[in-house]
Write a structure and sequence with these properties.
With about 100 residues, the chain is mainly alpha-helical. It is about 45% helix and about 5% strand. It has helices spanning about 15-25, 30-35, 45-55, 65-75, 85, and strands at about 5-10, 40-45. The chain has a two-stranded antiparallel sheet with strand order 1-2. Helix 2 packs antiparallel against helix 3 (about 45-55). The protein is globular. Mean pLDDT is about 75; it is low at about 85-103.
Length: about 100
Amino acid sequence: MRLMEALRKAPVNDKQVKQFMEIMEKPLPACIAISKIHVVIDDDSLFDEIQHASLSEPEKDARPIIADWVSKNHPTMLRDVSEDDLTDGHWYMSPISTHPTNL
């Protein structure tokens, strides 16, 4: 039997995307990131990455890990977010993207 990692929840409506963006506004230490992000995203592979980071650096900001996951696994999630929301401190600028609307 082969076990697979699962995505059980991701933001799908405006309220959930807004909630996600609010979580991403401030640094998010890896040691608490799963408990904070779990309300809008529930994904085994994301949580594994955050947990791995928290073991070596509990205070490491988990937002780059989360932003990377979004760009790879849910790239259309932010398609309706305005450019102003992405640039005025309401969204974490991913180091993997030079333009946040490409997420």
